[in-house]
Each structure stands twice: as C-alpha cells, then as structure tokens.
Write a structure and sequence with these properties.
mainly alpha, 108 residues
C-alpha cells in the first residue's frame, strides 16, 4: 500500500512538473523571440497535458497491459490501482495547466 501511495504521488508531481516546466520554458523562449509569453505559455500547457500524463505513467502500452491482463484474470485490485495512478497523473497535468492559465490571466 505504501508503494501505491508513493507511486501515485510521484506520478502526480511528475505530470505537474512537466506541464509547469514546459510552459515556463515556452514563456522564456517567447520573450527571447519578442513575443508575448502569456498566450504561448497557456497554449503550450494545453498541448503538454497528454504528454505529461504519458511521461508520468511511464509509457502508454505497459499500463494498458496491466489493466488488460489483470481484468481478464479477474484480479480487480491491480486494475483499480493502475486506473488510480493514471487519474493521479491526469490531475497533476490538469492542475499544472490551470495554474499556468491562472498565471497568464486566462483562468475561468
């Protein structure tokens, strides 16, 4: 159980960091090429969201295989854990995107 909570928290922060880091670097790049950083940062954060989830989970095929093999064998506990890990990574990417939008003044 301790491993599961650690993995879930790490995946959340990895996805969060990928979005925040990528958007901040896009903002720095925008300044260097004399463009407004706000819209570029918000756009980059939106585009990085799915890649942040993939990076946090560790690829796209392995989590699907874990879900498929355990579902077919009737072991639902690993399936639920893997789905929780994916949801945690999604929440990290989503919160990173919303934070960038808030910083850029595009939050709802």
């Amino acid at each position: 159980m301790n491993y599961f909570l650690t993995k879930t928290a790490l995946d959340f922060f990895i996805a969060f960091g990928v979005v925040i880091g990528g958007a901040l670097l896009a903002g720095i790049g925008s300044v260097l090429v004399f463009q407004a950083p706000g819209p570029n940062m918000a756009d980059t954060a939106e585009k990085l969201k799915i890649w942040a989830i993939v990076a946090a989970v560790g690829g796209t095929i392995d989590p699907i295989r874990v879900i498929e093999s355990n579902m077919l064998e009737g072991h639902l506990s690993p399936v639920v854990m893997q789905i929780c890990i994916i949801v945690s990574a999604y929440l990290g990417a989503y919160m990173g995107t919303e934070l960038i939008k808030l910083i850029c003044g595009e939050a709802l």
